[in-house]
Every structure is written in structure tokens, then in C-alpha cells.
Amino acid sequence: MNPLKEMKVTSPFGQRIAPIKGASTYHSGVDLKAAIGTECFAEDKGVVKVATEYSKGIGKYIVIEHDNHCTTYGHLDAF
Description:
This protein is mostly beta strands. The chain is built from no helices and seven strands. The strands form three sheets. A three-stranded antiparallel sheet has the order 5-6-7, with no helix packed on it. Strands 1-4 form a two-stranded antiparallel ribbon. The chain has a two-stranded antiparallel sheet with strand order 2-3.
């Protein structure tokens, strides 16, 4: 399942020019763009391991542990 009904990738997985540092870095995730209030869905069934109000760099976020991997959803406006 896709985490958003409409997927708009703003930063792909792999080497990229980091938006804050401005230098070439390895990006271990995929950044998606959505309007505030957009529903976000878990990409697979799993267990919530972290749900926190603030983390430097990704703001309010949640981590879901799946059978063989974890997904992190950051920059959330609500849980």
C-alpha cells in the first residue's frame, strides 16, 4: 500500500544534494510531499515502535516495525 493517495516524490533514495547542508549526501529514505491534514497510511501491517512530538530534522514522527523492516513517517502535523 502507498502511504499517500497521491504520491509526489520530493527527494528520492540514494545520492542527492542535501537541502539544508547543500552538499552531496546519501539519503536512506524517500521524501513525499503532501498538504497539511493529508491522511498518511502505513505501507504494510506492523507495530508502532515510536511516536514522538519532536525530533530535530523530522519534527513529529512515527516509526512502524514490520516483519522484516521499519518505516518512518516524519514531518507529521498530527498522529
